[in-house]
Amino acid sequence: MTLPPGRLTGVIPPVCTPLTPAGAVDTRSLTRLVDHLAGAGVDGLFVLGSSSEAAYLTDHQRRLVVETVTRHVAGALPVLAGAIDMTTPRVLAHAETALAAGADAVVATAPFYARTHPVEIARHFQLIAKHTGAPLLAYDLPSSVHSKLEADLVLGLAADGTLAGLKDSSGDQATLRSVAIGAPDGFSVLTGSELLVDTALQFGAHGVVPGLGNVDPHGYVRIVRHAAAGEWDLARAEQERLLALFAVVDAAPPERMGRGSAAIGAFKAALRLLGVIDHATTAEPQVPLSADEEARVAELLRAAGLHPA
Amino acid sequence: MTLPPGRLTGVIPPVCTPLTPAGAVDTRSLTRLVDHLAGAGVDGLFVLGSSSEAAYLTDHQRRLVVETVTRHVAGALPVLAGAIDMTTPRVLAHAETALAAGADAVVATAPFYARTHPVEIARHFQLIAKHTGAPLLAYDLPSSVHSKLEADLVLGLAADGTLAGLKDSSGDQATLRSVAIGAPDGFSVLTGSELLVDTALQFGAHGVVPGLGNVDPHGYVRIVRHAAAGEWDLARAEQERLLALFAVVDAAPPERMGRGSAAIGAFKAALRLLGVIDHATTAEPQVPLSADEEARVAELLRAAGLHPA
Amino acid sequence: MTLPPGRLTGVIPPVCTPLTPAGAVDTRSLTRLVDHLAGAGVDGLFVLGSSSEAAYLTDHQRRLVVETVTRHVAGALPVLAGAIDMTTPRVLAHAETALAAGADAVVATAPFYARTHPVEIARHFQLIAKHTGAPLLAYDLPSSVHSKLEADLVLGLAADGTLAGLKDSSGDQATLRSVAIGAPDGFSVLTGSELLVDTALQFGAHGVVPGLGNVDPHGYVRIVRHAAAGEWDLARAEQERLLALFAVVDAAPPERMGRGSAAIGAFKAALRLLGVIDHATTAEPQVPLSADEEARVAELLRAAGLHPA
Amino acid sequence: MTLPPGRLTGVIPPVCTPLTPAGAVDTRSLTRLVDHLAGAGVDGLFVLGSSSEAAYLTDHQRRLVVETVTRHVAGALPVLAGAIDMTTPRVLAHAETALAAGADAVVATAPFYARTHPVEIARHFQLIAKHTGAPLLAYDLPSSVHSKLEADLVLGLAADGTLAGLKDSSGDQATLRSVAIGAPDGFSVLTGSELLVDTALQFGAHGVVPGLGNVDPHGYVRIVRHAAAGEWDLARAEQERLLALFAVVDAAPPERMGRGSAAIGAFKAALRLLGVIDHATTAEPQVPLSADEEARVAELLRAAGLHPA
């Protein structure tokens, strides 16, 4: 499929990438995860994002993920693909592969590793848009790329047709709100926050890309529906249930592993406990969760009304 | 060739990657640059580092660079190759390609983009060393990867045989000195500083990897020779001449472009002015130097006693 | 007065400190500003915060500000006073002076300048609370003090009675929401955001401390009233009007001055244009706004429906 | 005394501030510490710096420290005094008090807490120099004030007569070297590093302000003398002995306390063990060293050839 007419809206989870114990992409678990999400009523899928461990996947694995998901959904849902790499030439290579493998849109960050500049960030997105000819979303992720996409830059690239949307994982709600207010028709403003979805929808965001949405997609679908109906108290109650569940990302303490490993490890442990994927394996060199830490994940799932095995 | 017995010492420039105006690797200019460096008496070559624009080169271009250089030097100098990527699986892929293309050793940073942890950094280097079986140098570059390799971590990985050396571009001379004092036999401590080579050699570093060494390799070779002879005043005078030349990296002001673009653009402009390479082109999305900025580079070359066209 | 029973709620502006052209505290303008705020129906006043230029005021000026404001309001509104300094002994000295001058509560940040630690941050607040015996609010301001008050730390100090509230200017809405959900009875959760007041109230914050509230207190009072009535669409419309007005802080560009100077300079220019204070002078070494920049402030005031002279 | 003719050179330790168990300034221990330093042949004293816990001392304590030291040395050594505060008006108040109490020169950082700008930093130093009329040294301490004094800014303020010197604790040796090369006659370039004193002197720094110099002033005096004699190998050996001793700052681990507390606590523990001061007390809210951590300090003192009780 191509992107839907109008803008992307609703719940578009960043799809985890299940791995076998040997570190290969577990395509059977991946398609089960896609079914789990689609069955909950999500509006699209985002593969090869940070929650997908895109930073850890080889080029071969990245292509396999896109192919597996696009074939499986067969046009029933739009599939956005991350093209996560340091600079324009390398991002272009990933973008072309993903589009050839069936992705409907590309998601790219500002350049990283290289010390960059706003002029270079703008040029980066313009070149990607021009060379791929596909819809392009900017991915604002300062904790990974160490530069912030400012509202003026995003809105300028929206106005000139470079960007089709913004996936904001910066935590900076004030800037996100400014972009939402200034966004032209057709431009999608998506928040990557797990914890502020109701409020982001209230101030004008169009959709959500929550990592925790792998584990509990129904919850995020409900928030979006409550928000659409103006039922803000119900949206808030659902968000607060999910906020409590989000404590899974702290099941492993910061002394033991990086915060990325703790979050992705917890999402995968939860998916395994819920029977969606076969293994909670994360890619090297991430530290895996211990049995005690997985038990804490199970406890939080139960407290949120989910039913781990 | 394989690495020399004992440790790497002396001047090992991070070799710039000349590009054609269309952005392809200019292999003829690259071999001329290698001749320029070898002719000045350098002790090794480091390809695919930050000054080589490794972050901007596609996988194909990276392999072409290693092949071109290793074939050209044909064992006359050790060739170290950067394997610059975000995490272990991706670094391994680059390392294997570089070694297959003839590199003698691999240089890798801590994981980046992903939020990491000292335990994961150690595991990252251990897995790379184990899987490649080749000499591995750690590349400490906090300005790019946003974590610092602490002395204890480096010395632990030196002691257990994981690391063959450290390429330090952190600017933290105190930590570098601690590593130099604690380094076991055979472990190479290399500074990436352009401006503190004499003092780093004085406190025990074994070699230098200066980006400016592309432009004036003779100068750095002289510092190493003066230092070996205990002629610290001569080493200092040579270092001060090169410090003045290093102002080329500020020929383009910070309002105009990123500091990486300014530095690499200046090195390439200097190499073109000196007749070593054909084009000063830098990779996208970097902003190129203006004619005025190139004129400033030429002026600084002349002031340093070099002879631009 | 002492603090009201229950918790602090509503609009509690951080009161600007008008200065004479010679840099003295302009007490006549200060009392007019207090009248301007009280007349709009605010629920309290916060003096000696960052928007008050507390960092720039001498000890004598700080005491004069507290005395001037507490005498003028004479118990009609609670007055919170910042005790902004680097460490416990120095904060205690400021807190004691402010309380002696009539303040009802103390607001303090984590230690700064000194490199600190969560255990030391907790001990800092515990010692202040114990020694002053007055209500203490923690001021979370990572952009100034370079450490973040995490939800667990704040909630622990709420539970043991150390803290009476949190004034959050971190921009981290997710942490603020966690604190709001976990806050015990009587604990006040106040957001320092100018742009996310409606959403902060929606997820459970109790009040707001907006610097822009100096300029347009009526607007913030309206948001709080709409929120209390569940009129979220009206609250949003009012917030969007104020978001547009907030562009005054960018009237002076980042090349010309620090962002603090630009914001405080703009608030003071606006207050002068509105006839509330006599001079827009800011303290040294801040760069003042130019005439053109003040004209831009006037333009934005008019666009927001206010009436500059 | 006033400052010596010419520039400040040699060893100028940042004098620790001994405290009684109740937290008062222990003036008897302070004068014994001054005798310990003067007896070792230091060239000046720096009071109220970071190692002096200036950030923790009340205004009264700060004045008492300056008075105690200036009366005790009675002109035998120049006394520099830190005027550590957030902005110009507050720094001026401290500077005037210190000068009235007998200090010979003032040491000030860039503004902090407030978000600042190079233009404002320059104006800050210019106003301090103008209003005090005393010699002013800039204190570059990015780890505390979160901005870096760039070489151009320092050299510009040296050239216009604003600054009499630089006390560099940034760890950035390359910038320090640039300042040393560009410094006009009479301008003092002092390094705050404990670990790179020989190399800083080699590249042109004029003096050193080492916190560890409280504990082992003889060692730093020897480095300076070896350097003056061109005996670089002896200077290096002495520096390496002190580098090993500097491990006292890691006697307390980072999980237990801030790194500032660990360093100052270790210096004070060492001074108590050596019989120079009566108590190792540090100011609130710093965590004190445990008995085991003090034992580790004693062990390192013995290994360095010192003789703890």
TrEMBL record, chains A, B, C, D:
Q: Which InterPro entries match?
A: Aldolase_TIM (IPR013785), DapA-like (IPR002220), Schiff_base-form_aldolases_AS (IPR020625)
Q: Which GO terms describe its molecular function?
A: 4-hydroxy-tetrahydrodipicolinate synthase activity; 5-dehydro-4-deoxyglucarate dehydratase activity; N-acetylneuraminate lyase activity
Answer yes or no on keyword Nucleotidyltransferase. no
For this protein, the Enzyme Commission number is: 4.1.3.3, 4.2.1.41, 4.3.3.7
Return the SUPFAM superfamilies for the record. Answer: Aldolase
Q: Check the record and name the SMART domains matching this protein.
A: DHDPS (SM01130)
The enzyme class is: lyase
Keyword list, A-Z: Lyase, Schiff base
Q: Which family does it belong to?
A: Belongs to the DapA family.
For this protein, the record's PANTHER family field holds: 4-HYDROXY-2-OXOGLUTARATE ALDOLASE, MITOCHONDRIAL (PTHR12128:SF66), DIHYDRODIPICOLINATE SYNTHASE (PTHR12128)
Q: What protein is this chain from? A: Dihydrodipicolinate synthase family protein
